[in-house]
Amino acid sequence: LSQTTSDKIRLNQIGFYPNGPKTAAIITAEESSFYILNTTHTDTLFSGKLQKPVTNAISGKIVRLADFSSFHKQGTFILSIPAVGYSYPFTIKNNVHHLLAVSTLKSYYYQRASIPLISKFAGQWARAEGHPDTQILIHPSAASANHPAGTIISSSRGWYDAGDYNKYIVNSGITMGTLLSLYEDFPKYTETIHTNIPESQNAIPDLLDEILWNLRWMLTMQDAEDGGVYHKLTNASFDGMIMPDRTIKPRYVVKKNTIATLDFAAVMAQASRVFRKYPKQLPGLADSCLQSAQKAWIWAQNNPEVLYQQNLINQQNDPDITTGSYEDKSNKDEWVWAATELYVTTKDNKYYPYIKQDLDNALSIPSWNQVRTLAYYTLSRYGSTLTQTGKKDLPSIQKHITSLADNLLKDVEMQPYGTVMGKTAKDYIWGSNSLAANQGIALVYAYQITHNSRYLHYALSNLDFILGRNGTGYCYVTGSGSKSPHHPHHRPSIADGIDAPIPGLLAGGANPGQQDKCEYPTTIADECYADIDCSYATNEIAINWNAPMVYLVTALEALQRS
Ligand code: G3I
Ligand code: 9MR
Fold first, then answer.
1. Could you give the domains of the chain?
2. Which residues line ligand 1 (CB under 6 A)?
Protein backbone atom coordinates (compact mmCIF):
# COMPACT_ATOMS: atom_id res chain seq x y z
CA LEU A 1 0.00 0.00 0.00
CA SER A 2 1.66 3.26 -1.01
CA GLN A 3 0.74 6.08 1.34
CA THR A 4 0.72 9.85 1.04
CA THR A 5 0.15 12.67 3.51
CA SER A 6 -3.52 12.79 4.43
CA ASP A 7 -5.53 15.80 5.47
CA LYS A 8 -7.79 13.43 7.41
CA ILE A 9 -5.24 13.15 10.20
CA ARG A 10 -5.54 16.21 12.40
CA LEU A 11 -2.87 16.95 14.97
CA ASN A 12 -0.76 19.68 16.47
CA GLN A 13 1.62 20.29 13.58
CA ILE A 14 4.34 21.65 15.84
CA GLY A 15 4.43 18.93 18.43
CA PHE A 16 4.19 17.60 21.94
CA TYR A 17 6.01 17.48 25.27
CA PRO A 18 7.72 14.15 26.04
CA ASN A 19 5.60 13.63 29.16
CA GLY A 20 2.52 15.48 27.96
CA PRO A 21 -0.71 14.26 26.37
CA LYS A 22 -0.46 13.39 22.67
CA THR A 23 -3.58 12.98 20.59
CA ALA A 24 -4.45 13.00 16.90
CA ALA A 25 -7.98 13.03 15.48
CA ILE A 26 -8.67 11.01 12.36
CA ILE A 27 -11.65 11.46 10.07
CA THR A 28 -12.47 7.81 9.62
CA ALA A 29 -15.19 5.37 10.56
CA GLU A 30 -12.94 2.33 10.22
CA GLU A 31 -11.43 0.46 13.10
CA SER A 32 -7.66 0.45 12.68
CA SER A 33 -4.24 0.40 14.25
CA PHE A 34 -2.05 3.46 14.03
CA TYR A 35 1.74 3.66 13.95
CA ILE A 36 4.36 6.24 14.88
CA LEU A 37 7.17 6.19 12.33
CA ASN A 38 10.39 8.09 11.85
CA THR A 39 10.24 10.68 9.07
CA THR A 40 11.82 8.37 6.50
CA HIS A 41 9.11 5.79 7.29
CA THR A 42 11.71 3.09 7.83
CA ASP A 43 11.12 2.40 11.52
CA THR A 44 7.93 1.80 13.45
CA LEU A 45 8.46 3.11 16.97
CA PHE A 46 5.03 2.81 18.54
CA SER A 47 1.64 1.43 17.68
CA GLY A 48 -1.85 1.60 19.14
CA LYS A 49 -5.51 1.24 18.26
CA LEU A 50 -7.85 4.05 17.25
CA GLN A 51 -10.50 4.82 19.84
CA LYS A 52 -14.22 4.28 19.31
CA PRO A 53 -15.84 6.51 16.69
CA VAL A 54 -17.59 9.72 17.68
CA THR A 55 -19.94 11.52 15.32
CA ASN A 56 -19.28 15.23 15.09
CA ALA A 57 -22.68 16.75 15.84
CA ILE A 58 -21.73 19.89 13.93
CA SER A 59 -20.58 18.33 10.63
CA GLY A 60 -21.80 14.74 10.81
CA LYS A 61 -18.25 13.54 10.22
CA ILE A 62 -17.07 10.43 12.05
CA VAL A 63 -13.88 10.93 14.04
CA ARG A 64 -11.61 8.55 15.95
CA LEU A 65 -8.80 9.60 18.26
CA ALA A 66 -5.30 8.16 18.36
CA ASP A 67 -3.75 8.51 21.81
CA PHE A 68 0.01 8.12 21.90
CA SER A 69 0.66 9.87 25.21
CA SER A 70 2.69 6.91 26.42
CA PHE A 71 5.19 7.40 23.58
CA HIS A 72 7.91 9.55 25.16
CA LYS A 73 10.76 9.38 22.68
CA GLN A 74 12.17 12.72 21.52
CA GLY A 75 12.52 13.47 17.82
CA THR A 76 10.49 14.23 14.73
CA PHE A 77 7.90 11.68 13.65
CA ILE A 78 4.82 11.03 11.61
CA LEU A 79 1.70 9.11 12.44
CA SER A 80 0.53 6.51 9.94
CA ILE A 81 -2.76 4.72 9.39
CA PRO A 82 -2.47 2.32 6.45
CA ALA A 83 -5.93 2.93 4.98
CA VAL A 84 -5.76 6.70 5.54
CA GLY A 85 -2.21 7.92 5.05
CA TYR A 86 0.54 9.82 6.84
CA SER A 87 0.19 12.81 9.13
CA TYR A 88 2.23 15.96 8.78
CA PRO A 89 5.49 15.66 10.74
CA PHE A 90 5.55 16.67 14.41
CA THR A 91 8.27 16.94 17.02
CA ILE A 92 8.40 15.57 20.54
CA LYS A 93 10.77 17.46 22.81
CA ASN A 94 10.97 19.75 25.81
CA ASN A 95 10.28 23.42 25.04
CA VAL A 96 8.64 22.37 21.77
CA HIS A 97 6.50 25.53 21.63
CA HIS A 98 9.17 28.05 22.61
CA LEU A 99 9.63 29.36 19.07
CA LEU A 100 5.90 29.77 18.72
CA ALA A 101 5.86 31.87 21.88
CA VAL A 102 8.57 34.02 20.29
CA SER A 103 6.91 34.39 16.88
CA THR A 104 3.42 35.14 18.16
CA LEU A 105 4.85 37.88 20.38
CA LYS A 106 7.09 39.17 17.60
CA SER A 107 4.01 39.69 15.42
CA TYR A 108 3.26 42.84 17.45
CA TYR A 109 6.46 44.41 16.19
CA TYR A 110 5.15 43.95 12.64
CA GLN A 111 1.91 45.66 13.67
CA ARG A 112 3.68 48.80 14.85
CA ALA A 113 2.58 52.16 13.51
CA SER A 114 4.92 55.17 13.31
CA ILE A 115 8.21 53.33 12.82
CA PRO A 116 10.03 51.87 9.82
CA LEU A 117 10.63 48.13 10.16
CA ILE A 118 14.27 47.56 9.26
CA SER A 119 15.62 44.29 7.92
CA LYS A 120 17.81 43.69 10.96
CA PHE A 121 14.59 43.08 12.90
CA ALA A 122 12.00 42.49 10.20
CA GLY A 123 13.97 40.36 7.74
CA GLN A 124 12.24 40.12 4.37
CA TRP A 125 9.23 41.95 5.81
CA ALA A 126 11.15 45.22 6.26
CA ARG A 127 8.96 48.17 5.26
CA ALA A 128 8.78 51.95 5.39
CA GLU A 129 7.23 53.73 8.34
CA GLY A 130 3.45 53.82 8.29
CA HIS A 131 1.24 56.44 9.92
CA PRO A 132 3.37 58.91 11.88
CA ASP A 133 0.02 59.99 13.39
CA THR A 134 1.38 63.35 14.45
CA GLN A 135 -1.48 65.29 12.79
CA ILE A 136 -4.71 63.78 14.02
CA LEU A 137 -7.94 65.73 13.62
CA ILE A 138 -10.46 66.08 16.40
CA HIS A 139 -13.66 64.66 14.91
CA PRO A 140 -16.80 66.73 15.64
CA SER A 141 -18.04 63.91 17.90
CA ALA A 142 -14.98 64.47 20.08
CA ALA A 143 -14.98 68.25 20.14
CA SER A 144 -14.64 70.11 23.44
CA ALA A 145 -13.95 73.70 24.42
CA ASN A 146 -10.23 73.02 24.57
CA HIS A 147 -10.16 70.85 21.45
CA PRO A 148 -12.66 72.16 18.88
CA ALA A 149 -13.45 70.02 15.86
CA GLY A 150 -10.74 70.14 13.24
CA THR A 151 -7.93 71.03 15.63
CA ILE A 152 -4.96 68.72 15.76
CA ILE A 153 -3.37 66.42 18.30
CA SER A 154 -0.40 64.07 18.01
CA SER A 155 -1.07 60.39 18.72
CA SER A 156 1.88 58.36 17.46
CA ARG A 157 2.90 54.75 17.94
CA GLY A 158 0.60 51.92 18.91
CA TRP A 159 -0.18 48.70 17.05
CA TYR A 160 -2.49 48.50 14.07
CA ASP A 161 -5.59 46.72 15.30
CA ALA A 162 -5.77 43.94 12.77
CA GLY A 163 -5.72 43.62 8.99
CA ASP A 164 -6.68 47.31 8.94
CA TYR A 165 -4.59 50.32 9.98
CA ASN A 166 -6.79 51.88 12.64
CA LYS A 167 -6.12 51.96 16.38
CA TYR A 168 -8.99 51.24 18.74
CA ILE A 169 -8.87 51.80 22.52
CA VAL A 170 -11.43 49.14 23.47
CA ASN A 171 -9.60 46.41 21.59
CA SER A 172 -6.26 47.62 22.88
CA GLY A 173 -7.72 47.30 26.36
CA ILE A 174 -8.20 43.54 26.45
CA THR A 175 -5.03 43.02 24.41
CA MET A 176 -2.85 44.95 26.85
CA GLY A 177 -4.60 43.42 29.87
CA THR A 178 -3.89 39.94 28.56
CA LEU A 179 -0.23 40.65 27.78
CA LEU A 180 0.42 42.50 31.05
CA SER A 181 -1.19 39.61 32.93
CA LEU A 182 1.06 37.19 31.13
CA TYR A 183 4.04 39.09 32.44
CA GLU A 184 2.62 39.21 35.96
CA ASP A 185 1.78 35.49 35.94
CA PHE A 186 5.01 34.18 34.42
CA PRO A 187 7.72 36.84 34.81
CA LYS A 188 10.66 34.46 34.81
CA TYR A 189 9.97 32.57 31.64
CA THR A 190 8.69 35.62 29.72
CA GLU A 191 12.02 37.32 30.42
CA THR A 192 13.72 34.59 28.34
CA ILE A 193 11.59 35.34 25.27
CA HIS A 194 13.78 37.31 22.87
CA THR A 195 12.03 38.77 19.85
CA ASN A 196 14.88 40.76 18.26
CA ILE A 197 13.25 44.18 18.29
CA PRO A 198 14.94 47.60 18.35
CA GLU A 199 14.71 47.73 22.17
CA SER A 200 16.07 44.22 22.74
CA GLN A 201 19.37 45.49 24.11
CA ASN A 202 17.83 47.48 26.97
CA ALA A 203 17.28 46.11 30.47
CA ILE A 204 13.54 45.59 30.00
CA PRO A 205 12.14 42.24 28.81
CA ASP A 206 11.07 42.24 25.15
CA LEU A 207 7.47 41.52 26.13
CA LEU A 208 7.34 44.72 28.15
CA ASP A 209 9.20 46.73 25.51
CA GLU A 210 6.59 45.65 22.99
CA ILE A 211 3.78 46.55 25.39
CA LEU A 212 5.36 50.00 25.86
CA TRP A 213 4.94 50.73 22.16
CA ASN A 214 1.18 50.56 22.53
CA LEU A 215 1.06 51.98 26.05
CA ARG A 216 2.68 55.23 24.92
CA TRP A 217 0.10 55.54 22.18
CA MET A 218 -2.75 54.86 24.57
CA LEU A 219 -1.54 57.64 26.88
CA THR A 220 -2.00 60.13 24.00
CA MET A 221 -5.64 59.09 23.60
CA GLN A 222 -6.64 60.67 26.90
CA ASP A 223 -7.88 64.25 26.88
CA ALA A 224 -5.48 65.62 29.47
CA GLU A 225 -7.94 68.39 30.37
CA ASP A 226 -10.70 66.19 31.69
CA GLY A 227 -9.42 62.59 31.70
CA GLY A 228 -11.87 61.22 29.12
CA VAL A 229 -10.51 58.83 26.50
CA TYR A 230 -11.25 58.85 22.76
CA HIS A 231 -12.82 55.70 21.33
CA LYS A 232 -10.41 55.25 18.45
CA LEU A 233 -7.92 56.82 16.10
CA THR A 234 -9.22 56.10 12.64
CA ASN A 235 -9.73 56.97 9.02
CA ALA A 236 -13.31 57.83 8.12
CA SER A 237 -13.34 54.66 5.96
CA PHE A 238 -11.02 51.66 5.63
CA ASP A 239 -7.88 51.98 3.50
CA GLY A 240 -7.49 49.86 0.40
CA MET A 241 -5.12 46.88 0.30
CA ILE A 242 -2.00 49.04 0.33
CA MET A 243 1.17 49.32 2.38
CA PRO A 244 0.87 51.55 5.45
CA ASP A 245 3.20 54.25 4.12
CA ARG A 246 0.96 54.70 1.06
CA THR A 247 -2.15 55.73 2.93
CA ILE A 248 -3.26 59.33 2.59
CA LYS A 249 -6.67 59.48 4.21
CA PRO A 250 -6.99 61.97 7.09
CA ARG A 251 -7.25 60.40 10.53
CA TYR A 252 -9.45 61.39 13.45
CA VAL A 253 -9.96 60.74 17.10
CA VAL A 254 -13.63 60.18 17.81
CA LYS A 255 -16.01 60.40 20.73
CA LYS A 256 -14.87 59.98 24.32
CA ASN A 257 -16.99 57.40 26.10
CA THR A 258 -17.29 55.48 29.35
CA ILE A 259 -16.22 52.05 28.12
CA ALA A 260 -13.07 53.22 26.34
CA THR A 261 -12.22 55.35 29.37
CA LEU A 262 -12.65 52.46 31.82
CA ASP A 263 -10.64 50.06 29.63
CA PHE A 264 -7.92 52.70 29.55
CA ALA A 265 -8.07 53.09 33.34
CA ALA A 266 -7.68 49.35 33.85
CA VAL A 267 -4.69 49.10 31.50
CA MET A 268 -2.95 52.13 33.01
CA ALA A 269 -3.49 50.93 36.57
CA GLN A 270 -2.05 47.52 35.71
CA ALA A 271 0.81 49.05 33.71
CA SER A 272 1.70 51.26 36.63
CA ARG A 273 2.16 48.15 38.78
CA VAL A 274 4.26 46.38 36.18
CA PHE A 275 6.52 49.27 35.15
CA ARG A 276 7.12 50.35 38.75
CA LYS A 277 9.86 47.68 38.63
CA TYR A 278 11.91 49.86 36.24
CA PRO A 279 12.36 53.26 37.91
CA LYS A 280 15.81 53.80 36.37
CA GLN A 281 14.90 52.84 32.82
CA LEU A 282 11.43 54.40 32.87
CA PRO A 283 11.57 57.29 35.33
CA GLY A 284 8.14 58.63 36.19
CA LEU A 285 6.24 56.26 33.92
CA ALA A 286 4.56 54.25 36.66
CA ASP A 287 3.36 57.46 38.32
CA SER A 288 2.07 58.90 35.05
CA CYS A 289 0.16 55.71 34.32
CA LEU A 290 -1.45 55.72 37.73
CA GLN A 291 -2.39 59.40 37.49
CA SER A 292 -3.88 58.82 34.05
CA ALA A 293 -5.83 55.84 35.36
CA GLN A 294 -7.21 57.84 38.27
CA LYS A 295 -8.14 60.75 36.03
CA ALA A 296 -9.90 58.38 33.67
CA TRP A 297 -11.78 56.82 36.57
CA ILE A 298 -13.02 60.24 37.68
CA TRP A 299 -14.17 61.08 34.16
CA ALA A 300 -16.08 57.80 34.03
CA GLN A 301 -17.72 58.55 37.37
CA ASN A 302 -18.85 61.92 36.03
CA ASN A 303 -19.92 60.38 32.70
CA PRO A 304 -21.10 56.90 33.66
CA GLU A 305 -23.37 56.10 30.70
CA VAL A 306 -21.77 57.47 27.54
CA LEU A 307 -21.87 54.72 24.92
CA TYR A 308 -20.16 54.71 21.55
CA GLN A 309 -22.88 54.36 18.92
CA GLN A 310 -21.47 54.84 15.46
CA ASN A 311 -24.83 55.24 13.74
CA LEU A 312 -25.88 57.98 16.09
CA ILE A 313 -22.59 59.78 15.68
CA ASN A 314 -22.94 59.61 11.94
CA GLN A 315 -26.45 61.08 12.10
CA GLN A 316 -25.10 64.10 13.90
CA ASN A 317 -21.59 64.63 12.54
CA ASP A 318 -19.50 64.71 9.40
CA PRO A 319 -17.60 62.92 8.08
CA ASP A 320 -19.28 59.55 8.58
CA ILE A 321 -17.08 57.02 10.33
CA THR A 322 -17.43 53.50 8.89
CA THR A 323 -14.43 51.65 10.33
CA GLY A 324 -14.55 49.00 13.08
CA SER A 325 -17.08 50.17 15.64
CA TYR A 326 -16.25 48.06 18.72
CA GLU A 327 -19.66 49.02 20.05
CA ASP A 328 -20.41 47.46 23.38
CA LYS A 329 -23.83 47.82 24.87
CA SER A 330 -22.97 47.12 28.50
CA ASN A 331 -20.33 48.83 30.62
CA LYS A 332 -20.93 46.72 33.73
CA ASP A 333 -17.88 44.55 33.21
CA GLU A 334 -15.57 47.48 32.41
CA TRP A 335 -16.45 49.05 35.79
CA VAL A 336 -15.44 45.85 37.53
CA TRP A 337 -12.20 45.54 35.59
CA ALA A 338 -11.10 49.17 36.05
CA ALA A 339 -12.04 49.11 39.73
CA THR A 340 -10.09 45.89 40.20
CA GLU A 341 -6.87 47.06 38.60
CA LEU A 342 -7.05 50.35 40.52
CA TYR A 343 -7.83 48.51 43.75
CA VAL A 344 -4.97 46.02 43.39
CA THR A 345 -2.48 48.73 42.43
CA THR A 346 -3.45 51.30 45.06
CA LYS A 347 -4.82 48.98 47.78
CA ASP A 348 -7.51 51.62 48.23
CA ASN A 349 -10.77 50.04 49.43
CA LYS A 350 -12.84 52.79 47.83
CA TYR A 351 -12.79 50.82 44.59
CA TYR A 352 -13.98 47.61 46.19
CA PRO A 353 -17.77 48.21 46.12
CA TYR A 354 -17.61 48.19 42.32
CA ILE A 355 -16.12 44.70 42.48
CA LYS A 356 -18.37 43.49 45.25
CA GLN A 357 -21.65 44.46 43.59
CA ASP A 358 -21.12 41.92 40.82
CA LEU A 359 -19.68 39.08 42.85
CA ASP A 360 -22.67 36.74 42.56
CA ASN A 361 -22.79 36.40 38.79
CA ALA A 362 -21.04 33.60 36.90
CA LEU A 363 -18.03 34.44 34.75
CA SER A 364 -17.73 34.13 31.00
CA ILE A 365 -14.80 33.77 28.62
CA PRO A 366 -13.24 37.19 27.97
CA SER A 367 -13.67 39.03 24.69
CA TRP A 368 -13.21 42.66 23.66
CA ASN A 369 -16.68 43.48 24.95
CA GLN A 370 -16.61 41.29 28.06
CA VAL A 371 -13.65 41.93 30.36
CA ARG A 372 -14.99 41.06 33.79
CA THR A 373 -13.08 37.79 33.98
CA LEU A 374 -9.78 39.67 33.53
CA ALA A 375 -10.57 41.32 36.84
CA TYR A 376 -11.00 37.95 38.55
CA TYR A 377 -7.72 36.74 37.12
CA THR A 378 -5.99 39.74 38.67
CA LEU A 379 -7.73 39.33 42.03
CA SER A 380 -6.78 35.67 42.10
CA ARG A 381 -3.16 36.42 41.15
CA TYR A 382 -2.81 38.98 43.96
CA GLY A 383 -4.91 36.94 46.41
CA SER A 384 -2.55 36.96 49.36
CA THR A 385 -1.70 40.65 49.07
CA LEU A 386 -5.25 41.99 48.82
CA THR A 387 -6.61 44.15 51.63
CA GLN A 388 -8.67 42.33 54.27
CA THR A 389 -11.83 43.39 52.43
CA GLY A 390 -10.78 41.61 49.25
CA LYS A 391 -9.16 38.67 50.95
CA LYS A 392 -12.47 37.70 52.51
CA ASP A 393 -13.92 37.21 49.04
CA LEU A 394 -10.91 35.40 47.58
CA PRO A 395 -12.38 31.89 47.94
CA SER A 396 -15.50 32.99 46.12
CA ILE A 397 -13.46 34.78 43.42
CA GLN A 398 -11.37 31.69 42.79
CA LYS A 399 -14.46 29.50 42.86
CA HIS A 400 -15.86 31.58 40.02
CA ILE A 401 -12.75 30.83 37.96
CA THR A 402 -12.77 27.10 38.65
CA SER A 403 -16.50 26.94 37.90
CA LEU A 404 -15.86 28.61 34.56
CA ALA A 405 -13.21 25.98 33.86
CA ASP A 406 -15.44 23.14 35.07
CA ASN A 407 -18.14 24.28 32.66
CA LEU A 408 -15.62 24.05 29.85
CA LEU A 409 -14.77 20.48 30.84
CA LYS A 410 -18.39 19.37 31.06
CA ASP A 411 -19.05 16.68 28.44
CA VAL A 412 -15.68 17.29 26.84
CA GLU A 413 -15.48 13.54 26.17
CA MET A 414 -18.26 13.94 23.61
CA GLN A 415 -16.25 16.47 21.61
CA PRO A 416 -15.06 14.54 18.53
CA TYR A 417 -11.60 16.12 18.42
CA GLY A 418 -11.07 15.76 22.16
CA THR A 419 -10.73 19.51 22.58
CA VAL A 420 -12.55 21.93 24.86
CA MET A 421 -13.08 24.24 21.90
CA GLY A 422 -15.96 23.30 19.64
CA LYS A 423 -18.33 21.50 21.98
CA THR A 424 -21.12 23.40 20.24
CA ALA A 425 -21.46 25.23 16.93
CA LYS A 426 -21.89 28.43 18.98
CA ASP A 427 -18.16 28.43 19.62
CA TYR A 428 -17.54 29.37 16.01
CA ILE A 429 -17.89 33.12 16.35
CA TRP A 430 -15.95 35.77 14.44
CA GLY A 431 -12.44 35.26 15.81
CA SER A 432 -13.24 31.73 17.07
CA ASN A 433 -9.58 30.86 17.48
CA SER A 434 -9.29 33.56 20.11
CA LEU A 435 -12.14 31.90 21.98
CA ALA A 436 -10.15 28.65 21.90
CA ALA A 437 -7.13 30.48 23.30
CA ASN A 438 -9.13 32.32 25.95
CA GLN A 439 -10.76 29.06 27.05
CA GLY A 440 -7.27 27.65 27.39
CA ILE A 441 -6.28 30.59 29.59
CA ALA A 442 -9.27 30.02 31.89
CA LEU A 443 -8.09 26.43 32.30
CA VAL A 444 -4.55 27.59 33.05
CA TYR A 445 -5.86 29.87 35.84
CA ALA A 446 -7.95 27.00 37.23
CA TYR A 447 -4.82 24.88 37.21
CA GLN A 448 -2.82 27.58 39.00
CA ILE A 449 -5.50 27.74 41.70
CA THR A 450 -6.02 23.99 42.18
CA HIS A 451 -2.93 22.24 40.72
CA ASN A 452 -5.33 19.72 39.22
CA SER A 453 -3.55 18.54 36.05
CA ARG A 454 -6.82 17.81 34.26
CA TYR A 455 -7.15 21.56 33.68
CA LEU A 456 -3.68 21.73 32.19
CA HIS A 457 -4.32 18.71 30.01
CA TYR A 458 -7.35 20.39 28.46
CA ALA A 459 -5.62 23.76 28.14
CA LEU A 460 -3.17 21.89 25.93
CA SER A 461 -6.06 20.37 23.98
CA ASN A 462 -7.02 23.86 22.86
CA LEU A 463 -3.46 24.65 21.86
CA ASP A 464 -3.62 21.47 19.78
CA PHE A 465 -6.91 22.70 18.35
CA ILE A 466 -5.34 25.95 17.16
CA LEU A 467 -2.31 24.15 15.77
CA GLY A 468 -4.19 21.55 13.72
CA ARG A 469 -6.51 19.24 15.67
CA ASN A 470 -9.70 20.86 14.40
CA GLY A 471 -12.40 20.78 11.73
CA THR A 472 -10.26 22.20 8.91
CA GLY A 473 -6.84 20.72 9.62
CA TYR A 474 -5.22 24.15 9.55
CA CYS A 475 -2.46 25.17 11.91
CA TYR A 476 -3.84 28.69 12.28
CA VAL A 477 -0.64 30.64 13.00
CA THR A 478 1.10 32.10 9.94
CA GLY A 479 4.55 30.66 9.31
CA SER A 480 4.00 27.68 11.66
CA GLY A 481 3.31 24.02 11.00
CA SER A 482 2.81 22.36 7.60
CA LYS A 483 -0.58 23.75 6.58
CA SER A 484 -1.03 27.32 7.75
CA PRO A 485 -2.76 30.44 6.39
CA HIS A 486 -0.97 32.01 3.42
CA HIS A 487 -3.47 34.70 2.50
CA PRO A 488 -4.67 36.45 5.66
CA HIS A 489 -6.87 39.52 5.36
CA HIS A 490 -3.93 41.65 6.46
CA ARG A 491 -3.00 44.67 4.39
CA PRO A 492 0.81 44.44 4.71
CA SER A 493 0.80 40.70 3.98
CA ILE A 494 -1.30 41.32 0.88
CA ALA A 495 0.49 44.42 -0.42
CA ASP A 496 4.17 43.75 0.32
CA GLY A 497 4.85 41.57 -2.72
CA ILE A 498 6.41 38.86 -0.56
CA ASP A 499 4.96 35.37 -0.86
CA ALA A 500 5.04 34.43 2.79
CA PRO A 501 2.60 36.27 5.03
CA ILE A 502 3.99 38.08 8.05
CA PRO A 503 4.68 35.32 10.59
CA GLY A 504 3.26 34.72 14.05
CA LEU A 505 -0.27 35.91 13.29
CA LEU A 506 -3.33 33.95 14.42
CA ALA A 507 -6.12 33.80 11.84
CA GLY A 508 -9.62 34.42 13.16
CA GLY A 509 -10.72 30.89 12.30
CA ALA A 510 -13.89 29.05 11.37
CA ASN A 511 -17.03 31.21 11.44
CA PRO A 512 -20.17 30.33 9.49
CA GLY A 513 -21.35 33.98 9.57
CA GLN A 514 -19.70 34.75 6.21
CA GLN A 515 -20.23 38.46 6.93
CA ASP A 516 -17.74 39.29 4.16
CA LYS A 517 -19.73 37.51 1.41
CA CYS A 518 -16.58 35.76 0.16
CA GLU A 519 -16.67 32.29 -1.35
CA TYR A 520 -16.58 29.47 1.17
CA PRO A 521 -16.36 25.72 0.62
CA THR A 522 -19.14 25.03 3.12
CA THR A 523 -21.52 26.53 5.66
CA ILE A 524 -20.67 23.93 8.34
CA ALA A 525 -19.67 25.91 11.42
CA ASP A 526 -16.41 24.17 12.30
CA GLU A 527 -15.28 23.97 8.67
CA CYS A 528 -16.32 27.39 7.42
CA TYR A 529 -12.89 28.88 6.93
CA ALA A 530 -11.16 30.05 3.77
CA ASP A 531 -7.50 30.93 3.37
CA ILE A 532 -8.26 33.80 1.00
CA ASP A 533 -7.53 37.45 1.58
CA CYS A 534 -11.12 38.41 0.89
CA SER A 535 -12.20 36.60 4.02
CA TYR A 536 -12.14 39.08 6.89
CA ALA A 537 -14.76 37.00 8.71
CA THR A 538 -12.44 33.97 9.01
CA ASN A 539 -8.97 34.94 7.85
CA GLU A 540 -8.23 38.33 9.33
CA ILE A 541 -5.79 38.69 12.21
CA ALA A 542 -6.21 40.96 15.23
CA ILE A 543 -4.21 42.06 18.27
CA ASN A 544 -6.91 40.82 20.66
CA TRP A 545 -6.75 37.36 19.06
CA ASN A 546 -2.98 37.11 19.08
CA ALA A 547 -2.73 38.15 22.74
CA PRO A 548 -4.49 35.09 24.20
CA MET A 549 -2.49 32.97 21.76
CA VAL A 550 0.74 34.47 23.13
CA TYR A 551 -0.56 33.98 26.66
CA LEU A 552 -1.61 30.35 26.19
CA VAL A 553 1.49 29.13 24.41
CA THR A 554 3.80 31.02 26.78
CA ALA A 555 1.99 29.87 29.90
CA LEU A 556 2.05 26.23 28.78
CA GLU A 557 5.78 26.48 28.01
CA ALA A 558 6.45 28.10 31.37
CA LEU A 559 4.45 25.46 33.25
CA GLN A 560 6.14 22.67 31.38
CA ARG A 561 9.50 24.01 32.53
CA SER A 562 8.55 24.57 36.16
O1 G3I B 1 -23.36 40.36 20.69
C2 G3I B 1 -23.96 39.42 19.80
C3 G3I B 1 -24.55 38.27 20.57
O4 G3I B 1 -25.57 38.76 21.39
C5 G3I B 1 -25.04 37.21 19.60
O6 G3I B 1 -25.47 36.08 20.30
C7 G3I B 1 -23.93 36.80 18.64
C8 G3I B 1 -24.44 35.85 17.57
O9 G3I B 1 -23.60 35.84 16.45
O10 G3I B 1 -23.44 37.95 17.99
C11 G3I B 1 -22.88 38.91 18.86
O12 G3I B 1 -22.39 39.98 18.12
C13 G3I B 1 -21.18 39.76 17.43
C14 G3I B 1 -20.20 40.81 17.87
O15 G3I B 1 -19.01 40.68 17.14
C16 G3I B 1 -19.86 40.68 19.36
O17 G3I B 1 -19.15 39.52 19.62
C18 G3I B 1 -21.44 39.89 15.93
O19 G3I B 1 -22.24 38.82 15.48
C20 G3I B 1 -20.13 39.87 15.18
O21 G3I B 1 -20.38 40.16 13.81
C22 G3I B 1 -19.18 40.89 15.76
O23 G3I B 1 -17.95 40.73 15.12
C24 G3I B 1 -16.96 41.70 15.36
C25 G3I B 1 -16.54 42.34 14.03
O26 G3I B 1 -15.45 43.22 14.24
C27 G3I B 1 -17.65 43.13 13.38
O28 G3I B 1 -18.08 44.18 14.19
C29 G3I B 1 -15.76 40.98 15.96
O30 G3I B 1 -16.12 40.53 17.27
C31 G3I B 1 -14.57 41.91 16.03
O32 G3I B 1 -13.45 41.15 16.44
C33 G3I B 1 -14.30 42.54 14.68
O34 G3I B 1 -13.25 43.46 14.84
C35 G3I B 1 -12.70 44.02 13.66
C36 G3I B 1 -12.79 45.54 13.80
O37 G3I B 1 -14.14 45.92 13.77
C38 G3I B 1 -11.98 46.27 12.73
N39 G3I B 1 -10.61 45.77 12.69
C40 G3I B 1 -10.54 44.35 12.43
C41 G3I B 1 -11.24 43.56 13.54
C42 G3I B 1 -11.11 42.07 13.35
O43 G3I B 1 -11.91 41.57 12.31
O1 9MR C 1 -10.58 45.41 5.94
C2 9MR C 1 -11.65 45.57 6.86
C3 9MR C 1 -11.46 44.67 8.05
O4 9MR C 1 -10.31 45.05 8.78
C5 9MR C 1 -12.69 44.65 8.94
O6 9MR C 1 -12.60 43.65 9.92
C7 9MR C 1 -13.93 44.42 8.12
C8 9MR C 1 -15.20 44.48 8.95
O9 9MR C 1 -15.35 45.74 9.53
O10 9MR C 1 -14.03 45.33 7.06
C11 9MR C 1 -12.95 45.26 6.15
O12 9MR C 1 -13.10 46.24 5.16
C13 9MR C 1 -14.01 45.94 4.15
C14 9MR C 1 -15.26 46.79 4.33
O15 9MR C 1 -15.93 46.46 5.52
C16 9MR C 1 -16.18 46.63 3.14
N17 9MR C 1 -15.50 46.93 1.91
C18 9MR C 1 -14.32 46.08 1.69
C19 9MR C 1 -13.33 46.26 2.81
C20 9MR C 1 -12.09 45.42 2.57
O21 9MR C 1 -12.38 44.08 2.38
1. 9-92 (2.60.40.10)
2. 161-162, 164, 324, 369, 430-431, 515, 536, 540, 542
